[in-house]
Design a protein that fits this description.
mainly alpha
Length: about 475
Amino acid sequence: MLREISEGVAAMAENNDATRQNALERFGLWLAGWSEKWFPDAWVFALIGIVIVFGLGLALGESPSKLAIEGGKSFWTLVPFTMQMAMIIIGGYVVASTPLVYWLIRRIARITANPRAAIAWIAFFSMATSLISWGFSLIFSALLVREMSRTVRKLDYRAAGAAGYLGLGAVWALGLSSSAALMMATKGAIPPKLYDISGVIPLTRTLFIWPNLWTIVALMAVSILTAYFSAPSEDRAKTAEDFGLKYEPIDVTVVTREKPGEWLEYNPILILLVGGLLCWFLVDLFRNSPTGPLAALDLNNYNLIFITVGMLLHWRPRRFLRAVAQAVPATGGVIIQFPFYAVIFGMIVNTSITKRLSDLFVAISTPKTYALLVALYSAILGVFIPSGGSKWVVEAPYVLQAATQQQVNLGWVVQIYNAAEALPNLLNPFWMLPMLGLLGVRARDLVGYSVLQMFIHIPLVFLLCWLFAQYIPFVPPLK
């Protein structure tokens, strides 16, 4: 049924919107060609960011010695976070490659044989899954792109990969894995100085308010339409084969043991025992969370959930370990690049750059312009600190202080931050790294189509952030 509906919509669009489709297609092809020629590798992008922030610090009067020392001191500060990101890739792949989930991926990949419709479906599932977990979305979408590249003839691999990345570039921070919203809903997670300003902001005032839900719907609709109409026609498509890639289905078969000593590797008894203990812990964790189950959904617990589910669904230790081994190569870019982004973080946070920017922000904001300034500032800062949670700690004190002064709803300020924070992800390939490892391409191969989405998202996000700010009343902080 889904296939027939998809094919019918595709046929109607081909007949009725040829002019608009061709214009957007030409622009997408131009951006793709430009990025393939000029866009640097993701690691080079990190080095460029260091140079830009160093120059900004000098322009603001900071000493070069201070910038260099603070940047170098911060090189290893993201090591725990780096490990968390690597585990997200491994955990997401382990779950996505289980027989049950991979069966679902293969079924979705057969919804349509139309290349444009396939890209639209990839965009939809990428954003829908990101509202639950951005880490799972990256891996699920990458495997869906790979599977569709096998089943859909003339599927443009660049546009499909960019569509699979839309979860991180559009709506992830408006969903359940929003670092900023989860932090503000948990008293123990809020830094004391920030708590004095904002108090606790429950999820009922951030994720579950009607403006946030309408923002999700608008962004998903616009993103899917853009992905569909900008996809290259079949005669201009660059397929996975054109990149020299050919994917075989993931092997989910059970291999029988060959030696007596391998008995425990193929027997589910250990999986059941250890998985049962971890499930016991997780149930207790969510049941006894003092501020509600959602407050326990931090990054470590997300990873533990996926590892536990992956163990249980793979059922046998040998098959679980095989999935882990297949996922590890995709973590290489994350492991080497995150320390260099930590240098950028250190130069901004531990020098006068943050205070200079915050003073300027508070000085120029008014009740009418506040929402737009927050969105613009969050988007720009996100290019240099591409980490939603870490950046919020830097930005929140003066952003929420100014919001209190201007009588702007604090919960909506968090969501303005979340909506705008996703925009630079469409340009900065930082979060694209897990997908790049699984898809076997470079950032420049996908960025053209993600930048096209960014051009369309920016005015829409800014408009929605400003518009809804006019209708949500200010609520005093909860302390």
